[in-house]
Amino acid sequence: MPPIKKLNDEELTAQHIAELENSDRIRDFFYGLGYDVDGATDLPHATVNMDTDDLQQRIRRIRKIANDPDEEIEIILFEVRSVTVALTQTIAQRFRHGAGTTFWC
Where do the structural domains in the chain lie, given as residue ranges? Predict the structure, then answer.
């Protein structure tokens, strides 16, 4: 699907956020914001430096969701067993030290 060009900011509602219940819905959400979702795919843990046994147990799935139209931003979804401060910090540190110039939030 080619991305939809957006000229203005989108107004988000609580309903938009409530609908983000799985990776397909999240992909569709970013498509609606004008992101390119054609390359959406599962990523091996090693691709983003998350290939330790511990992280493979704690992170169920890593999925590239979308790119912005200029391909400057890549959206990656981490599906985890439990969101903890420690896991969030570990993901951030490993991303910063092994995943190139990709940033995440």
Answer: 14-96
Location of structure tokens 């910063």 = 96
Q: What is the largest CA-CA distance in the chain?
A: 44
How high is the pLDDT of residue 10? Answer: 74
The predicted-structure confidence for 33-64, as pLDDT tens digits, reads as follows 889 999 899 999 998 889 999 999 999 999 99
Q: How many residues does the chain have?
A: 105
Query: In this structure, is the dihedral angle defined by the CA atoms of residues 19, 21, 23 and 24, taken in order, positive or negative?
Result: negative
